[in-house]
Specification:
Length: 107
């Protein structure tokens, strides 16, 4: 799985290394936190991308859940959302605020 956070990371509002540390601490293997071992590997790829390689059955929804939990903890949940761009790839995007402002001007 790949989590692409390059857009918010380039705007300096999302700390990728803190997110990687959060995943290391929170991902459960065999119902135990901190039990990653060799079965799950988390690495940073380039600018703002995190790759999670699982050699066991692993749900992408669980990764999305943890990402949303991290955003809520950092109080970024109001501005960012997690979108699946293709199978196994999640991307953090900003909410489209410009469209809402344009709608308000029409009234």
């Amino acid at each position: 799985f790949i989590i692409n956070a390059s857009q918010p990371a380039s705007d300096k509002i999302f700390d990728v290394s803190a997110f990687e540390k959060f995943l290391h601490e929170k991902i459960k293997v065999d119902n135990r936190v901190g039990n990653l071992g060799d079965t799950v590997q988390i690495s940073q790829q380039g600018e703002g991308k995190i790759e999670v390689v699982a050699h066991i059955q692993f749900s992408g929804r669980y990764l999305k859940y943890l990402t949303k939990k991290f955003l809520k903890k950092q109080q970024l949940r109001d501005w960012l959302r997690v979108v699946s761009t293709s199978q196994g790839v999640y991307e953090l995007r900003f909410f489209n605020v410009a469209n809402d402002e344009a709608d308000d001007d029409d009234e």
